[in-house]
Write a structure and sequence with these properties.
The complex is a heterodimer of chains A (about 100) and B (about 425). Chain A has 2 helices and 6 strands; from the N terminus they run βββαβββα. With about 100 residues, chain A is an alpha+beta fold. Chain A is globular, with a radius of gyration of 14 Å. Chain B is built from 9 helices and 18 strands. Chain B is globular, with a radius of gyration of 21 Å. The chains are: A alpha+beta (about 100), B alpha/beta (about 425). Chains A and B meet through β3 and α1 of A and β12 and β15 of B. Bound molecules: flavin-adenine dinucleotide (FAD).
């Protein structure tokens, strides 16, 4: 699989470490009333779809950026690549 | 029809005209006491033990393809009982004991071969870990021996003992472990279940559940609705896809694991060797091919095929350990979709929906579990209580801190 890095261009997937579902960006609020429940779901439950999947890849042997890769889990086609930083910012997550 | 050596000789002399199909191919009835989803090893074993141990025979096993087409026919056939943690140890030891008597029990040649499994050790730290695991194995009644380098050399003189990176310092030998002919396990359980009246319905995909007022009434399938008092999901790599239809999210990710087999060779490897440090393990099939594998590809996948980088990584491990492999040609490679759970251990449990049960999370190691998984799932379905050796395999264990994390990796499925 070739990951088209937004800054570095096409890179072999072997240069990356895979973390999992990009929903991991959305860490629950630890002060919310349902925090225990929300953290259980966040840590342990997964959608695990057959088809399109947004997921986190870390460019360990490159520029050490985190990417959000949209990939088809049935065909292994990579459909879209974004910097995780941009995705998080677009959700108002960081300054 | 009973199988025996005498029968084989008789058939050989009479042109093999007396063999009959091993199971029927019935159309589904409108309703069953138990509908099992998935005709893999675990689903078929569950049907067999429900019928044999509990006298429940009004059962259908509903399989979307052909039985044995999933992981039960794709694995590298290794069976072992070398677990460390209490939640696992007695369960896998029970499974190994069932393997030891299985062929007599279901009158089918599953080629159970206790040829021994050797886990190699390359450092003091690994030797300590092997000693600890070996002690746990001895406590569970599985048996274990710690070998030094000389002991390993006496068994397998052709290994690369003096590699600079991973010199072989010894190994943990599990003599009762070995291999079993994987599809024969599916066929043997299928035959045993069919003989007791179980309907095995192939080419029938479960597409949904009928759930009313918190009770599961049956399954929607490509052959129409099938009613059931109890529905038992047992679909390995497809667990999330199937249970999603009941509105459930599972502590599971689906990953692809590859396996490889070489051209047939003269007998060279009479046991199973695992080279964990190099991500490689290997045995030789009775046909002569070296059967080997390594790590998961590492990303979510439903593709039933992997990619070349892991192939390269695995054969590099093979070359590092057994340099003599260099001229051997690989014949085939394939992948299976494994249901990686959040702690690397399985589930055999009820769900919050009345009448709906779940068996899954077997990761890359559920073949060895087949007999005990079927036995314990049948026990749960028949009695409503978990079997004594499977009490920890609960779906809600993460809520209560009851993880069974053999590797201590945490909630990262691709590292288990
Ligand atoms: C390459 C590889 C190597 C392995 N090596 C080993 C090993 O050496 N030792 C070991 O112990 N384990 C090993 N495993 C793991 C082991 O194979 C599995 O854990 C085990 O086979 C899973 O249980 P099963 O046999 O019931 O699964 P499967 O055979 O996969 O059965 C599940 C069945 O469910 C069916 N199904 C799915 N969805 C539906 C639906 N909607 N409706 C109806 N049916 C459906 C599928 O078609 C399939 O037949 C390996 C796995 C792989 C992929």
């Amino acid at each position: 699989m070739i990951i088209n890095h937004p800054i570095l261009g096409p890179r072999d997937a072997q240069e990356f470490i895979y973390l999992g579902d990009a929903a991991l960006i959305d860490r629950p609020d630890w002060q919310a009333d349902n925090a225990a429940e929300a953290f259980h779901d966040y840590l342990y439950l997964r959608d695990n779809p057959a088809g399109q999947h947004r997921e986190l890849w870390f460019h360990e042997q490159g520029d050490r950026s985190w990417l959000v890769v949209t990939r088809n889990t049935v065909t292994h086609d990579i459909l879209n690549v974004e910097l995780a930083r941009d995705v998080a910012r677009a959700r108002g997550r960081s300054k | 029809m009973r199988y025996s050596g005498l029968k084989v000789i008789k058939e050989a002399l009479t042109g093999h005209k007396g063999w009959r199909p091993t199971w029927r191919n019935p159309e589904p009835k409108a309703r069953y006491d138990v509908v099992i989803i998935g005709g893999g090893g675990h689903g078929l074993a569950t049907a067999y033990y429900l019928a044999k141990n509990h006298g429940i025979t009004n059962i259908a096993v509903v399989e979307k393809g052909w039985i044995g087409g999933g992981n039960v026919g794709r694995n590298t056939t290794i069976v072992r009982s070398n677990y460390l943690l209490d939640g696992n140890g007695p369960f896998y030891e029970m499974s190994l004991k069932l393997w030891e008597g299985l062929e007599q029990d279901f009158n089918y040649n599953a080629m159970v071969s206790q040829r021994g499994i050797l886990n190699l050790v390359h450092s003091d730290a690994q030797r300590d870990a092997a000693r600890r695991r070996g002690n746990a194995m001895i406590l569970n009644g599985s048996g274990a021996e710690l070998l030094d380098a000389k002991g390993v050399r006496a068994m397998y003189p052709f290994l690369n003992f003096d590699s600079a990176r991973f010199p072989i310092k010894g190994g943990l030998l599990h003599r009762r472990g070995g291999t079993v002919r994987h599809d024969a396990v599916a066929w043997g359980y299928a035959r045993g279940a069919d003989l007791r009246g179980v309907d095995i319905i192939q080419n029938c995909e479960v597409t949904g559940f009928r759930i009313e007022n918190g009770k599961c009434l049956g399954v929607e399938t490509s052959k129409g609705f099938i009613g059931a008092s109890k529905v038992a999901s047992c679909v390995a790599g497809s667990s999330s896809r199937v249970m999603e239809k009941a509105g459930m999210r599972l502590p599971i990710e689906s990953h692809v694991l590859q396996a490889f087999v070489t051209e047939g060779l003269k007998p060279v490897l009479d046991g199973v060797i695992t080279f964990g440090a190099g991500h490689f393990y290997c045995s030789q099939s009775d046909k002569g091919g070296l059967v080997f594998g390594g790590d998961l590809d590492g990303y979510n996948s439903y593709a039933q095929r992997g990619n070349l980088p892991v192939f390269e990584d695995v054969v590099e491990g093979g070359m590092a350990l057994i340099p003599a492999l260099g001229r051997v040609r690989v014949l085939r490679s394939w992948g299976g979709i494994v249901d990686m759970s959040m702690d690397g251990s399985p589930f055999i449990d009820k769900t919050h929906i009345d009448g709906l049960y779940f068996n899954g999370g077997w990761c890359y190691g559920g073949f060895k579990a087949t007999p005990a998984s079927g036995w314990c799932y049948a026990h749960l379905l028949a009695t409503g209580q978990p079997h004594d050796v499977a009490t920890d395999f609960r779906l809600d264990r993460f809520r209560h801190g009851g993880m069974i994390d053999e590797k201590g990796q945490g909630a990262q499925p691709n590292l288990h």
